[in-house]
């Protein structure tokens, strides 16, 4: 599992998908099979890191909209940190029509993930379409590796 998260971080870094990666302060891994908002808020409160990633390897992968709503609940509860948030999920969808739709394509992390970043960090511009195909290919390989782990009973 740790190797998969490291490979995902390497893809994100290689393609500069996240300008916050170098300032990444803390990663929290929640091993519960249900998204407990109170637990996540409490875990976030334990760190003073400016950028926080909360990874949920044991959550179901079939309900990205439910996960996104829970992330919104957490973000509302920790608003005092001055953070904005983004939800990443293996079932996220998107399209090539415009930059907003492409975001959904690259937010298909191998495991559900909540990212909190300070409001004052710079805005991210969309990656060119040509590079998007390479990124999507690498993300597909990570998803295949994640499915193999699930079949072996690892954090699934």
Task: From the alpha carbons, calculate the radius of gyration and give it in angstroms.
Answer: 15 Å
- Roughly what fraction of the amino acids lie in strands? 5-15%
Characterize the main sheet: 4 strands, mixed
* Proportion in helices: 40-55%
- The DSSP helix count reads 5
Separation of the first and last Cα atoms: 11 Å
Shape: globular
Brief overview:
This protein has helices at 2-14, 37-45, 64-77, 99-106, 129-151, and strands spanning 26-29, 52-55, 83-88, 113-118. By secondary structure, the chain is α+β, with helices and mostly antiparallel strands.
How would you describe what is shown here?
The chain has helices at residues 2-14, 37-45, 64-77, 99-106, 129-151, and strands at residues 26-29, 52-55, 83-88, 113-118. The chain has 156 residues and is α+β, with helices and mostly antiparallel strands. A four-stranded mixed β-sheet has the order 1-2-4-3, covered by helices on one side.
Topology:
Elements: H1 2-14, E1 26-29, H2 37-45, E2 52-55, H3 64-77, E3 83-88, H4 99-106, E4 113-118, H5 129-151
Parallel strand pairs: 1-2
Antiparallel strand pairs: 2-4, 3-4
List keywords for this structure.
156 residues, alpha+beta, 4-stranded mixed sheet, 5 helices, 43% helix
